[in-house]
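Need residues for this backbone.
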């Protein structure tokens, strides 16, 4: 991505289209909204869509509403390359906003937010458009404010290990009060008759829907993070006839990988139990998605390497990067590896972000992605090579540094 106005305009158009479609979809699918409130939001989003498309690409209000149920790329004006918007749905078969649309919206905001801070987007986006500043950036700033490395590591670890739970337990976490405010009521679309289920991988409330299946009504729940659902965090449940808690039905899990990927592969054997929504809270979705989710492979990689005798530091220098790994024989010269861990749905947006930051301003020389993002390696490697950074999956990186230290990864 270059600095040309044309490229920046394309970034803005894709952002405005995604943002307008997502807000409109939420207005259409959120229960309990007054009709006039729903209509007012849809009309505002339609106006944003028209502004993004320009006078040469008119779109009626009715066509806009119908298009929200189709391919997101169909809402772009001619001449704008859709990239990751191609084939992306905003509303799924259950009438809910898709996980992918949410991720694309937030990741595009992260990119524009970064570009604005680097003074590369004068006039491209306004403060009002990016008013909901990236939650995790605010949380990190609050943790850094105390200037204590141990406090920062403890607080960020808590956000990863405890993204949801009983209010009385969350109150005992080592978090500043303003960060504790990021814990909210359990989201309505993760609750069934007052009950919710934590994901067995990330512990955040799973998504709940009710479907008709062969003439019967059945409950379906899975993690909002699609890769976690693919790893086995996906279940059915029978609808209870009384006020009792629903029980999840065990489903066959995908086969565990062998070799190096088995080391970091999560254990999803235990079926989650229903928890009451009353008295429980969960992190806002943005912090869960871009702190908890990528934090899991960060902590897992730290734990596995430390267990094998390697010297590893988490978020050194108050989060200049994610991991500092010292590699080499027990006696002899060691080499340091500075690592950033990223989990983006859109590899294209992540690549643009890396380019906008001239690599990594914190000094990382490795970009590591979760094993389930292995398909992003070719694209990211091409971009990172320009900044003398290397890219690997978490398991590939773990095996490599263990080999250099003379220990076995597997």
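Answer:
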């Amino acid at each position: 991505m270059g600095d040309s106005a044309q490229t920046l305009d394309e970034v803005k158009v894709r952002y405005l289209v995604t943002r307008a479609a997502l807000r409109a979809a939420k207005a259409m699918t959120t229960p309990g909204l007054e009709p006039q409130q729903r209509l007012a939001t849809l009309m505002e989003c339609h106006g944003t869509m028209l502004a993004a498309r320009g006078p040469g690409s008119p779109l009626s209000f009715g066509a806009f509403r119908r298009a929200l149920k189709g391919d997101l790329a169909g809402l772009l004006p001619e001449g704008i390359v859709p990239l990751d918007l191609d084939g992306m749905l905003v509303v799924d078969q259950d009438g809910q906003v898709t996980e992918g649309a949410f991720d694309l919206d937030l990741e595009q905001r992260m990119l524009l937010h970064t570009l604005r801070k680097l003074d590369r987007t004068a006039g491209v986006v306004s403060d009002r458009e990016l008013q909901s500043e990236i939650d995790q950036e605010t949380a990190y700033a609050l943790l850094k404010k105390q200037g204590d490395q141990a406090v920062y590591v403890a607080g960020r670890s808590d956000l990863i290990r405890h993204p949801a739970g009983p209010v009385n337990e969350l109150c005992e976490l080592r978090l500043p009060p303003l960060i504790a405010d990021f814990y909210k009521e359990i989201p309505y679309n993760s609750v069934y008759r007052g009950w919710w289920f934590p994901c067995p991988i990330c512990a955040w409330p799973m998504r709940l829907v009710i479907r008709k299946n062969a003439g019967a009504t059945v409950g379906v729940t899975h993690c909002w993070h699609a890769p976690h659902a693919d790893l086995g965090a996906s279940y059915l449940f029978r609808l209870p006839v009384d006020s009792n808690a629903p029980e999840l039905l065990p489903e066959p899990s995908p086969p565990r990988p062998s070799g190096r990927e088995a080391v970091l592969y999560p254990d999803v054997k235990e079926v989650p139990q229903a928890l009451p929504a009353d008295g429980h809270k969960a992190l806002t979705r943005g912090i869960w998605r871009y702190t908890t989710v990528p934090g899991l492979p960060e902590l897992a990689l730290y734990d596995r390497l430390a267990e094998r005798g390697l010297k590893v530091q988490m978020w050194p220098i108050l989060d200049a990067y994610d991991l500092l790994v010292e590699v080499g024989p027990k006696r002899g010269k060691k080499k340091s590896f500075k690592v950033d861990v990223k989990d983006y749905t859109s590899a294209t947006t992540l690549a643009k972000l890396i380019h906008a930051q001239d690599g990594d301003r914190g000094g990382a020389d490795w970009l590591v992605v979760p094993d389930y993002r292995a398909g992003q390696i070719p694209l990211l490697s091409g971009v990172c090579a320009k900044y003398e950074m290397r890219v690997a999956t978490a398991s590939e990186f773990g095996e490599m540094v263990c080999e250099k230290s003379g220990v076995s990864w597997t």
